[in-house]
Amino acid sequence: MSALAPVLDRLDQSLDQSLGRLFDLLKVKSISTDPAYAAECRKGAEWLVADLKTIGFDASVRNTPGHPMVVAHHDGPAGSPHVLFYGHYDVQPVDPLELWDSDPFAPAIKEIGPDHKVITGRGSADDKGQLMTFVEACRAWKVVHGALPCKITLLFEGEEESGSPSLKPFLEANAAELKADFAMVCDTGMWDRDTPAISTALRGLVGEEITIHAADRDLHSGEFGGAAANPIRILAKILADIHDDTGRVTIPGFYDGVEETPSQVLKSWESLGETADDFLGPIGLSVPAGEKDRSVLELVWARPTAEFNGII
Ligand SMILES: [Zn+2]
User: Fold this and answer.
1) 90 CA distance to ligand 1 centroid (A)?
2) H or E stretch including 119?
């Protein structure tokens, strides 16, 4: 029998207790963007540390200039790989509250269709639900086998929903402690509820703000139109030039170092059968706007993109 099978059995047998622990964490109002919830964020970190200690992790709340990190270590057999596992315990704000069918911090299991149950509650799908699957997997493995199969470090932050300002300095300051052979991120999703997914890459983000300076006051178009430069027109021209007619980004060097997706990977994505209509239909669109002749999945999973996120 494999080492995994009895662990999966154990997880099935103890599902109610696992859900109970997840619900306890979901009740914590760890909204990182609102300073009014700072104490709740700390409560989330402290809850995790207390829970991880029950599994035998050497766990601690680690202060940062913002919300605290949770760092937890567990030894593995000599010579085993060291796995770093990242997740976040903070959640998105919940307003507007009137759009919720139930209290976002009163988690519940709801039947939303035949044989289709979901957990409702803020953070259940991002990221408390995911991070607790890993914690519960460690717990079950330890109960069944008495030890973990490799050295594991958990790193849970409380600022992912507010831009992770403390993450980089924390990683730099604790590089030796957090150095690992693999890093796993659980802040991802499944393909659909029957098909698990392994995300092997995530897109990063680089931002730039452009300010157009023109006249030093608001102008009447009847009096100044045509003679005075219109900043909206200038900005629109700059933005329009960032993509060519085939959807390619024209910024020099933008695609430097971007590798073509291997054909066998494209083929496996094709086998998912997702059409542009499937992907864009639910948001009221049908025509992909990115680089021509690439599938929507390749556009969002493998290609870099230049987007405009607001005009003031
Ligand atoms: Zn997340």
Assistant:
1) 8
2) strand 116-120
Q: Is 301 strand, coil or helix? A: helix
Q: What is the pLDDT of residues 41-71, one digit of tens each?
A: 999 999 999 999 999 999 999 999 999 999 9
Domain 4-185 has CATH 3.30.70.420: no
| CATH architecture for segment(s) 221-301 | 2-Layer Sandwich (3.30)
CB 61 within 8 A of CB 46: yes
User: From the CA of 30, how far away is ligand 1's center (Å)?
Assistant: 13
> For residue 233, how far is its CA from the centre of ligand 1 (angstroms)?
37
Ligand 1 centroid distance, CA of 160 (Å): 7
Q: What are the boundaries of each domain within the chain? A: 4-185, 221-301
Distance CA 251, CA 160 (A): 29
Q: Please list the residues that pair with 58 across neighbouring strands.
A: 73
For the chain, the distance separating the N- and C-terminal CA atoms, rounded to the nearest angstrom, is 62
The CA 193 to ligand 1 mean position distance, Å, reads 18
